[in-house]
Amino acid sequence: MFGFPVTCADGEYKIVEDLPVDAFSQECINKTLKELQDEQAGVAHML
C-alpha cells in the first residue's frame, strides 16, 4: 500500500498527479513494492 499526496478543498480530496519522481525515490518505491509483494505471497495460503 502506498500513500499519495492530496489536496483538499471544500471537503473534497484530489490526488496530486504528474509529480516528478527522481531515480532514488523510484528505487525506494520499487524496493518497497517488492517487499510488499513478498509479504503477500508469504500469507497467500492463509487467505
TrEMBL record:
<dbReference type="Pfam" id="PF02866">
    <property type="entry name" value="Ldh_1_C"/>
</dbReference>
<dbReference type="InterPro" id="IPR022383">
    <property type="entry name" value="Lactate/malate_DH_C"/>
</dbReference>
<dbReference type="GO" id="GO:0030060">
    <property type="term" value="F:L-malate dehydrogenase (NAD+) activity"/>
</dbReference>
<feature type="domain" description="Lactate/malate dehydrogenase C-terminal">
    <location>
        <begin position="1"/>
        <end position="42"/>
    </location>
</feature>
<dbReference type="InterPro" id="IPR015955">
    <property type="entry name" value="Lactate_DH/Glyco_Ohase_4_C"/>
</dbReference>
<protein>
    <submittedName>
        <fullName>Malate dehydrogenase</fullName>
        <ecNumber>1.1.1.37</ecNumber>
    </submittedName>
</protein>
<keyword id="KW-0560">Oxidoreductase</keyword>
